[in-house]
Write a structure and sequence with these properties.
By secondary structure, the protein is α/β, with parallel strands linked by helices. The chain contains eleven helices and 17 strands. Strands 6-5-4-1-13-14 form a six-stranded mixed sheet. Helix 1 packs parallel to helix 2 and helix 8 runs parallel beside helix 9. The radius of gyration is 23 Å and the shape is globular.
Length: 409
């Protein structure tokens, strides 16, 4: 039997407002290394977005390398990690030769030769125990070539077909390798993309969904030869299209107030043969987030309750009465001497006078770039014949900004 632990979307280095999340990440990674020992995990699969930025800070990198050593020390025989759209492929790849000596396999950039994405893992006796198709986030340049005069539909179709072809070629090499082995060995694949059939809710920002793949990728791109598919990109843990072996592990932390109620877990897949027995392990909440909305009296009352409980919650305050200029002063006075922190505070309004209409109870802070752009072109009454082209071009520009090695988020 071989035991796999699947996780993704750590986003080490992420901030919430002006507050860094390093302490939470350190607690999570310590918890994860202890879980690896407790559950006797053989293989750790990390499906992208290790870091939150393509230029992670020294502190973020220190947490990353410290964890890799911890996991190896806790008895994890193999770690396979691929880049997500937030990661710098070249930065992850840089120490790969050294890390490979510790059975830590890093795929930042998709190799030109599909065979280089196929990793054969062996147990302590040298027997094959798992084949991994280690496929990172696939950027446009990895899977398609652009041509002048292409329509948005043609470009997206070529991108989708390029991703499908890439998975087929890598998994074909994995099957050839498996057939050459003396006995049956399971095949696991990784992916960092937005799979059709996945559920998207408030837990998942549109920013991430529209970077790179520009939309949903059909789940049938994963060949039937894959016994388990470890996905990253969406922050909500879930199966894809009702297929138990194709899963998002979700993010381990709540990275925004919109995610504050979302379930958080890592996934363990036990193979005794080629069919996995799957278990979700809940991740503890390392930092409580709370959104308080209503009149000032409602907000002040809730703050008093939190102070009485000696809470250390991080708060988002949404005030709907007529004291916007006083709100910051009132909040500073209300939380003075307590452990709670006000991360965000604003009134319920959205870009008044700017021509962009908000829905009831909605704030500009809650919207994502693509949604803002779509509402803007609607507000400007842009001709419908131009809308698709403009939105597609905006998404490509956003992909270049957020997915480029040269730019942080």
């Amino acid at each position: 039997m071989i035991r796999i632990l699947h996780t993704s979307d750590w986003h080490i280095g992420r901030s919430l407002g002006a507050f860094k999340r390093y302490e939470e990440h350190e607690k999570f990674l310590d918890w994860l290394s202890e879980l690896i020992m407790e559950k006797q995990v053989d293989v750790l699969l990390v499906a992208g977005d290790v870091f939150d930025s393509s230029t992670p800070s020294n502190r973020a990198q220190e947490l990353y390398f410290r964890f890799l050593k911890q996991a190896a020390d806790q008895g994890c025989r193999h770690i396979v990690m691929v880049a997500g759209n937030h990661d710098s492929p070249s930065m992850l790849d840089a120490p790969r030769v050294l890390l490979k000596t510790m059975n830590i396999h890093i795929i930042g950039t998709a190799p030109a030769d599909p065979d280089d994405s196929v990793i054969l893992l062996q147990n302590d006796q040298g027997d094959p125990e798992l084949i991994v198709c280690a496929i990172p986030f696939l950027r446009d340049r990895d899977v398609r070539s652009s041509e002048a005069g292409e329509s948005p539909e043609e470009r997206e179709k070529k991108l989708t077909e390029g991703i499908r072809k890439h998975y087929q070629e890598v998994c074909r090499q994995a099957v050839i390798l498996r057939d050459s082995l003396p006995g049956p060995v399971p095949i696991a694949a990784t992916g960092h993309l937005f799979a059709a059939g996945a559920r998207v809710g408030e837990d998942d920002g549109l920013r991430d969904l529209y970077v790179g793949t520009l939309g949903r990728i059909a789940s049938d791109i994963f060949p039937e030869s894959c016994d388990y598919v470890a996905l990253g990109h969406l922050h909500s843990p879930q199966m894809v299209s009702g297929k138990a072996h194709i899963r998002y592990s979700g993010a381990p932390l709540h990275f925004s107030f919109g995610e504050r109620n979302g379930r958080r877990c890592v996934i363990i897949a036990d193979f005794n043969g080629t069919w996995p027995l799957i278990e979700e392990i809940p991740v503890p909440e390392f930092q409580r987030l709370e959104r308080i909305s209503g009149s000032w009296d409602d907000i002040a009352g809730r703050l008093e309750q939190l102070k009485a409980e000696y809470s250390d919650a991080w708060l988002e305050i949404v005030c709907d009465d007529s004291r916007p200029l006083e709100l910051g002063v009132l909040l500073n006075e209300a939380v003075a001497g307590s452990r709670v922190k006000v991360v965000k505070s604003f009134k319920k309004s959205i870009n008044e006078g700017g021509g962009l209409k908000g829905r009831d109870g909605e704030t500009l802070d809650e919207l994502e770039p693509v949604e803002v752009f779509e509402r803007l072109i609607s507000a400007r009454e842009v001709d419908e014949s131009l809308r698709d082209e403009l939105v597609f071009t905006f998404k490509e520009a956003l992909s270049m900004v957020l997915g480029s090695d040269a730019n942080a988020e």
